[in-house]
């Protein structure tokens, strides 16, 4: 058994069922796992096996049917929507397949948003935005709008936005799904190297074998369950 004190994320017997008309869909069944600070963990498995459901539960974007989640040893299973918003502002960054940048804002303004939402202002915001944009090699595009960037560049900006508030945990759901293989490999290498510099953990949901290969370990999922774990 792993020492709970070392765990950034602890998931215990987590299950999620959805009602679809008269039937109950069991999306996640009895999942237990722990993630340590700084670890890069990938989840792979066939479509519909519950990967996004698991990530959404850990990020508070959905609620479990049963089981428990703790982040930094804080029980968050029954956190309210407001508490989850605060937790995400403090501790969690999320990267989606579809980038979700705000088209009317510049790259710099998009990346600054999580800091502004926390009430931060002034030179410290500009400095931090510059630091993370440089880390994803997008500092020269600070004044561009998302529509002027390639998909890979937009995803690099989305990663900068996800780490700007120094989260302990970054959740990424199919972040290379809209990219060609070269851009995808670039994004995966950022997920590999950024934790070494910024110290966060990464949980990555992917269909890509090569993306999963970059992780410290890979959980294979099937029918809502974790079936085995491969360490690299
Ligand atoms: N909001 C919902 N309402 C009903 N069923 C849902 C809902 N969200 C997910 N499901 C079902 O739960 C199961 C797991 O879905 P999930 O999206 O977690 O799988 P996945 O492994 O991420 O799939 P993919 O690789 O295709 O994204 C699927 O059968 C899906 O149809």
Automatic annotation (TrEMBL):
Keywords: ATP-binding, Hydrolase, Lipoprotein, Nucleotide-binding, Transport. Pfam families: ABC_tran. Its EC number is 3.6.3.-. SUPFAM superfamilies: P-loop containing nucleoside triphosphate hydrolases. SMART domains: AAA. It is an enzyme of class 3 (hydrolase). It comes from the Bacteria. One of its GO terms (molecular function) is ATP binding. GO terms for cellular component: membrane protein complex; plasma membrane. Residues 9-232 form the ABC transporter domain. PROSITE patterns: ABC_TRANSPORTER_1, ABC_TRANSPORTER_2. The keyword Hydrolase applies. Belongs to the ABC transporter superfamily. Macrolide exporter (TC 3.A.1.122) family. This is ABC transporter, ATP-binding component, putative Lipoprotein-releasing system protein LolD. It comes from Nitrospira defluvii. The lineage of its organism: Bacteria, Pseudomonadati, Nitrospirota, Nitrospiria, Nitrospirales.
């Amino acid at each position: 058994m792993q020492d709970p004190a070392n765990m950034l994320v602890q998931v215990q017997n987590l299950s999620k069922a959805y009602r679809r008309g008269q039937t109950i869909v069991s999306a996640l069944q009895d999942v237990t796992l722990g993630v340590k600070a700084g670890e890069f963990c990938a989840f792979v498995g066939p479509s519909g096996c519950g990967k996004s459901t698991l990530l959404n539960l850990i990020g508070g974007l959905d609620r479990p049917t049963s089981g428990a989640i703790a982040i930094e040893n804080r029980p968050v299973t029954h956190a309210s929507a407001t508490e989850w918003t605060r937790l995400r502002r403090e501790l969690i960054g999320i990267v989606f397949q579809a980038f979700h940048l705000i088209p009317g804002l510049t790259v710099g303004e998009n990346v600054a948003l999580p800091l502004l939402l926390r009430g931060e202002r002034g030179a410290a915001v500009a400095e931090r935005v510059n630091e993370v944009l440089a880390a994803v090699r997008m500092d020269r595009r600070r004044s561009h709008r998302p529509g002027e960037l390639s998909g890979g560049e937009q995803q690099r900006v989305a990663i900068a936005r996800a780490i700007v508030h120094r989260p302990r945990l970054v959740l990424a759901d199919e972040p290379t799904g809209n990219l060609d293989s070269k851009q995808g490999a670039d994004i995966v290498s950022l997920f590999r190297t950024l934790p070494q510099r910024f110290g966060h953990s990464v949980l990555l949901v992917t269909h890509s074998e090569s993306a999963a290969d970059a992780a410290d370990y890979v959980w294979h999922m099937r029918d809502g369950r974790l079936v085995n774990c491969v360490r690299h």
